Structures are given as structure tokens and as C-alpha cells.
Amino acid sequence: MFNHKKNLPIIFILGSLTAPSISHAAQTDLNFRLRFESAEQDNPLKDASSLTLRTRLTHKTDEVNGFSALIEVEDSRSLLGVDDYNNTLGKNTNYSVIADPETTEIDQGFIKYAKDALAIKVGRQVIALDGQRFVGHVGFRQDRQTFDAATVNYTFDDINLHYSYISKRNRIFADSKDIDSSDHLINASFKTSVGKVVLYSYLLSNDAVDDDSLDTYGVSFNGNKTLSDIKFYYKAEYATQSASTSMSDFDADYYAFEGGIDLVGLGETVTLKAGIESLGSDNGDYGFATPLATMHKFNGWADTFLATPAQGLDDTYVSLNGKAFAGKWLVAYHSFDVNDNVNGVDDLGSELNVQYVKPINKTYAIGAKYADYSAGDSAAGKVDTQKLWIWVSAKF
Description:
This protein is mainly beta and about 400 residues long. Helices cover about 0% and strands about 60% of the residues. It contains no helices and 23 strands. The chain has strands at about 1-5, 10-15, 15-20, 20-25, 25-40, 50-60, 65, 65-85, 105-115, 120-125, 145-155, 160-170, 180-190, 195-205, 215-225, 230-245, 250-265, 270-280, 315-325, 325-335, 345-360, 365-375, 385-395. The protein has an 18-stranded antiparallel β-barrel. A two-stranded antiparallel ribbon has the order 2-3. It starts with a strand and ends with a strand.
């Protein structure tokens, strides 16, 4: 990480010599991630493999009288000819998909004003709300998701108010698949002694589709509590959604419940969590959608359910995570079922996820993870899928 501070010129105000107020020095960051990924599916597609390098250069200016700016360039390249994969842009379509196309683009570029409880940001930016279930940056992919937006945050005491207007969704598939939109994100949260409560309204519209709207209203509560030296985790969430185009209208509900506990006495603390997440259906014709979410984080890393089936999706899961050899490990198991049993489909399969990440020092880290999805009812149209990732990252 490189830090430097510019010598800003003094300015004259009403005939007097006054220096601008500088609260934060400029900063430049350079970040690399080299990753091998493979994908195997039980279908006619060829097994895919990729070796890609993502480079991200970020520069933040001095903050002067509350104003600052940030510019960030991101590049993703295939290396050493390891590029036998469908990159989602029409290359190698006879291979399985690995959604890391080669691209160079402005990842972020915004002006920010921050004063006391108020922060305003205008331009291309990362927006990640709560656990990224509805709005996130999809940071696991080499070309992460950002938004052309105007954002206002106001924080006082234990309350945070957030509003964003999004005019463009810069998705993970390079510039050619970005979406012009008219999206409104409203999120209000407040902390209590037992957890955090969030109320949200996400009103989305794809400008390329006539009369398109996707309106989601929800509430969530999550927190943790230590009783008799044992730490407990808990989460509950509910949302309702209305989807509309010039052709049809649909409604669906969402709910999630999760509980967890720290298991002590095993050398290192191990956290056990279990829960269910339900993305509802409208009579088997429409599944609850989260188009701005970091979807790779939910419903299994094999990315089988990036689009919710029309019958909906119930994901019952259990996970264990802890530390070993100065790194962090995680094991999770998912069991998938339809939310609305129609057309002879009930069982949507199961998936095992395993991950280990280890920092080498403050600069370098290594990681590996594996996903093994087993298909359920054949009528669901899913296939057995195995994916592997091995990576090294560096930040300066």
C-alpha cells in the first residue's frame, strides 16, 4: 500500500490566507488475484478450465473540506493458454461456463462528500447492503459488479439510512452485458441490544424491457448473544416481491431462518450453523428473484441456482467453520427442494462445499475451495457438477 500527501495550494478567501481542511491523505492500492478454476458437468459440454489474473489499481484522492474522489481500473486476463471455457461472451460455447471474460474497465469512479453523519457518493461504485443477499458486488468473480449510481447515507446514534438511485448495472460479464436501469434502493437499519433490524425496499426496473418492474419489500433481524460463556447466533428474514412486465404479473415471498453456536473445547473454536432459505413461487410459474445479489454466496458454490427455478427453491443447510494452521476453513452441506411441487419436480439435489483460506503475511494469501453438486429429479433439468478453485492473492 502506497501513501502520499499532495502539497495543495493555499486559497484566498475574502482577502485572507486560508488553507483547505484536509482530513485524509491520498492513497493508491494495487491488488492481484491469480486463480485456476475448473468445471465438470454431467452433460455434453466439455470440461472447462481457466487460469486468470485479475489486476485492480485504485487511487483515492486527499479529502478536502469533506470532498474526495476515487478512481479504480480493473483488468482480467487469461494466462498460459489455459482458456478452455465458455466465458459467457460467445467463446468456446461447447465448454462449461466459467464467468471470467477478459476485460479492462473502470470498476469504480466517483466523487464523495462526507460531513458528520452525512455521506453522498455520485458515480460508479460498489454497493453492498447487509449480507449481499439482495444487493452486492459479486466479488468472487474476477470482474466484480458495480453500479452507476447516486448514494446517500445518513447515520446517527445506532440508526443508518441508505438510499441509492442506480442508472446502470455493471455486471460480471464485461461491458457488453451491462444493463441500463432505473433502480431505487431504500435501506434503514438500527441496532438493539440483541441484534440488528433492517427494513428495506428495492424497486428495480430494467430499461430494456417494457413496463419492467421488480419490487421487493422486506425486514430482517440478526445478531448474537453470549450466555454462560457460550455464543449463540440467530437470524430471521421475510420479504415479499411483485414482478411485472407488459406480458404478465407475479408475486412471491421469501423467508430465511438461521441459528448457530460456537463449539468450544475443540482446541480452536468451531462455529456450527444451520438454517433454511426459501425463495418462493407463484404457483410454479415464477421464482423469487434477486438480480443484484452476490448470488455465488448463497445456494451452493456450484452456481446451479443463479436463477431461481419457476417452482421456487428451499435450501436447507448446515455449516461448520473454524481455524487451523493459521488459516480459516469451512464445510457446508445443502439440500435443495422446490417450494411449489408442480410438474413432477420435488427434489432439486444436494451440494457439498469445502474451503480453506490462509494468509501468508500482510501482503499474500492463498486459498482453495471445492463444490460438488448432485442433481435430484431429472425433470428439474439439473446435472451433476463439480467445481474447483485454487488461488493466490496479493495487495500492495
